[in-house]
Amino acid sequence: QVQLVESGGGLVQAGGSLRLSCAASGSIFSIATMGWYRQAPGQQRELAASITAGGSTNYADSVKGRFTISRDNAKNTAYLQMNSLKPEDTAVYYCKTTGTLKSYALFTSWGQGRQVTVSS
Predict the structure, then answer these.
(1) What per-residue confidence (pLDDT) applies to 115?
(2) Contact yes or no for 89/80 (Cβ under 8 A)
(3) What is the phi-psi region of residue 76: left when phi exceeds 0, alpha when psi lies from -120 to 50, beta otherwise?
(4) 3 state SS of 17
(5) What does the DSSP assignment read for 17-68?
(6) How many CB atoms lie within 10 A of CB 109?
(7) Distance between CA 27 and CA 112 in Å, rounded?
(8) Residue 75: phi, psi to the nearest 5?
(9) Tens of pLDDT along 49-80?
């Protein structure tokens, strides 16, 4: 009932920048938190950054000062600006969204993931 469309990512050299977008659509009443998680090969999925409806943000220590998460509540869209990228940022990045449906049921949705590859 909630679809997430992710875009952005790709291949970049170390020190470069990339941007990810995640647009939510469907029978949505409200969105609470939007976030980006990442999973590198052989590693567990981990939170990179998240943002609440009120704009409060949370970042993994490894990305603080380099990544910025933002959202456009009118468009149900979140963005992750990634600067000063490092090879260790290489991973599949997944958008996760939680909120309430028009039926007042709670939901949690995940996107399909976007590959981010940082070459040294």
Answers:
(1) 98
(2) no
(3) left
(4) coil
(5) -EEEEEEEEESEEEEEEEEEEEE-TTS--EEEEEEETT--EEE-TTTTTTEE
(6) 19
(7) 19
(8) -105, 0
(9) 999 999 999 999 999 999 999 999 999 999 99
